[in-house]
Amino acid sequence: MKTKITRINFSKIIFALCLAAFCFVNMNVADAAKLRRTGRAPEVEHDYSLNRPVLPNTGDIGVVVDGYDPMHIATAEAMIIEELAANGYRVVDEARMKKLRAAAARAKAARYALEGNVSAILKLNGTYNATATIVARVQAGRPVVNEFRLYTATAQAAMIAVTSRGTKLGGKTAQGKAVGYTQDEAQQKAIEAAVREGLAQMF
Fold this sequence. Notes:
This protein is an alpha/beta fold. The chain has two domains: 2-42, no CATH class; 52-202, Rossmann fold. It has helices spanning 2-38, 70-86, 94-106, 109-114, 119-127, 183-202, and strands spanning 46-47, 52-53, 60-67, 90-91, 132-140, 144-145, 151-163, 168-180.
């Protein structure tokens, strides 16, 4: 009797493995067919190898940066867009980007998203046909003179991404610190360091 049970269980295991292999092959065939038909891979929002959500690999990504200094905002935006391109993502075109920025400012969407309320960003994703929007807020502190008579500045970059499905990425505040010959240089370098750290956490 024990032998019979062992054989039955073994048969079930073989059947389950064959079924899993069949499903895996069919999924790969379907994905390949979609790639041939549309030129795009199937949309992915989770990296199971890293066990964390990722930006969608289809569609366009929006970028909204908030802050007090226009130069710091421009620097952070340029760095985020450059990182997206380096990782194979597409960014929404400039015309839509301008409208997205303006709408986010009117709705205070960046602030709300960074505070955890992502509904405003979800609406903007739908309005401007973005599969996700990266929202960031950057701020540099007042530089201080160090013992070498140079300026040391610290900065923060809070960064979060919200996909059209409501998935959130990031959300942590990155820190940056830098030294410069002038206050502006120290602040600028600190902003860049904070944004780099924030991007490293997200990608």
